[in-house]
Amino acid sequence: xxxxLKSSACLSADYHSVQNIFITGAAGxxxxxxxxxxxxxxxSVVGWDNFSTGQERFIAEARQHANFKFILGxxxxxxxxxxxxxGCDTVFHLAANADVRFGLxxxxxxxxxxxxxxxxxxxxxxxxxxxxxxxxxxxxVYGEATVIPTPEDAPFPIQTSLYATSKLAGEGLIxxxxxxxxxxxxxxxxxxxxxxxxxxxxVFDFYQQLTEHPDFLRVLGDGTQRKSYLYxxxxxxxxLHVINAGLALKxxxxxxxxxxxxxxxxxxxxxxxxxxxxxxLKPRLEYTGGERGWVGDNPFIFLETKKVRAxxxxxxxxxxxxxxxxxxxxxxxxxxxxxxx
Amino acid sequence: xxxxLKSSACLSADYHSVQNIFITGAAGxxxxxxxxxxxxxxxSVVGWDNFSTGQERFIAEARQHANFKFILGxxxxxxxxxxxxxGCDTVFHLAANADVRFGLxxxxxxxxxxxxxxxxxxxxxxxxxxxxxxxxxxxxVYGEATVIPTPEDAPFPIQTSLYATSKLAGEGLIxxxxxxxxxxxxxxxxxxxxxxxxxxxxVFDFYQQLTEHPDFLRVLGDGTQRKSYLYxxxxxxxxLHVINAGLALKxxxxxxxxxxxxxxxxxxxxxxxxxxxxxxLKPRLEYTGGERGWVGDNPFIFLETKKVRAxxxxxxxxxxxxxxxxxxxxxxxxxxxxxxx
Lengths: 341, 341
Known about the structure:
2 copies of one chain form a homodimer.
Chain A: E1 20-24, H1 29-40, E2 44-49, E3 68-72, H2 78-84, E4 90-93, H3 107-128, E5 132-138, H4 162-181, E6 184-190, E7 192-194, H5 202-212, E8 216-219, E9 226-227, E10 229-231, H6 232-244, E11 255-260, E12 266-267, H7 268-279, E13 284-287, H8 306-309, H9 319-332, H10 335-340
Parallel strand pairs in A: 1-2, 1-4, 2-3, 4-5, 5-6, 6-11, 7-10, 8-13
Antiparallel strand pairs in A: 9-12
Helix pairs in contact in A: 2-3, 3-4, 7-9
């Protein structure tokens, strides 16, 4: 382990205590990107994944690294999870069922893989004496927000999806563990994240369609849905920035909640424009109609990010740039479509 | 079944569709009181309870009624729950682990008995085509509220107890079932409820202590905690009033959330005064100290109840009167202390 050099890199007394890091969902889109970032920073990382949506190829390079250990396992197996976490000081809990759109087809999935899984992560931490956790929550917890851009202390919302409900339950469990067991928590409410290793979402679907039939694109809803996106490396920078600063230690309940997003949003139609321009295509557009893409879809998601910006972080890429990087990666990695079939 | 007489009792087209009612926690404090109220109104009631805290004596009279059927069962047994609910049109989901104070001793209890149990209730309803649900949530979901009196749309709070977290998860599941499956839901965020059949809480504890040692009372915290209470029959009147009016059917997401409480609060010290006056005692008071009675205790709970009052309901009893009724019932029913040992 490195010792603290009292340099400007030492953002807080706690910085170097984030050294042995456990990541759930380590083979996933965001998780595997975090693995690589942390290894590059000289941290030791234990990756945990059940490969339900994670990809072996995403951690192939990390597996060559001396400071990385991968353990195959499922968050519903509390005993194995507890054993795997031994010796770590910080947990990034990123594993989740992120299939928002089809939640109603299998309502138990969000409960098990998000709510109960988060409970197990917290219990495994408690058994190991690990108290620092970072959690990937979602801007969907605001439901159909009445205040836009939506701040962290928006009016108490009505939940509109099983996914957001299960994430909010996870947040509450984490808050309670801070209050009751002295945990230190960083809860991040993400907009949609995109970038390299992105394996589901509208860019994924649109690119797939345009590969199969370049002259035609089917769009869920009426195309006017307004959404916000964040590039994965900007997302990771934000998380690492606030954790390294130990901000939760100064918070009343030892928990800090941050919205993560850009300071702008785009319409689905804008996004289609960026994608078609990048691909040099002019497909005929067919809309399924209605202001929502599916039951529980939120026609306008735009998070207020003043709180995280006030800590000194800001994103490097615009939404259009993020979509561009995502497309280039999908073009170079078409194998992900085979894997998802 | 009665037919609608188009009288003033017909508050809405839906009124008489609330006819065959399933109650979870039917042998509990609030549940058994509701059973009696509904039977008196001519409804048919199926009671469901696992007797974990419910009492056989609370439903002894109801059991003599032709319109009441009791089924012994646990909410974690989804198959039995689904079978039990058959033929009902409305569910009052009142069963819960309500042991807020000791939640940290057994964190899994709230998850199982509140969150997972609520999921099972919803799944059993879905299997039976039942869409109307009333749910007993809690003012604790506001955490340590920054706005007092706290309205239903208070700023999005940090959760401070496993109990409130599990209830909020239950709320979210219910909201999602309204959005996704067309359910109609009434969510009630209670202050502490007291009255006949009350079997846990500060009046219960104080009366027990004063029975054992009339000259001495041990008080958790410093006695300045400010709390709000509601008499059980007022609580039931509020729930039945808004459900009979079918208010959720007019709501954007087919769910209405109501705070239930009185328009005043008392300090723990005030409550001690009422209790001692009623019992004719002047005990020596010993405070454990601190502004909280226990970890996660909220030093000030006072809910804004304008929303439910605007529907035409108001409570009949003050907090002092409610405490008086509670005490008289405890004096006449000391067997509940034996049962709780």
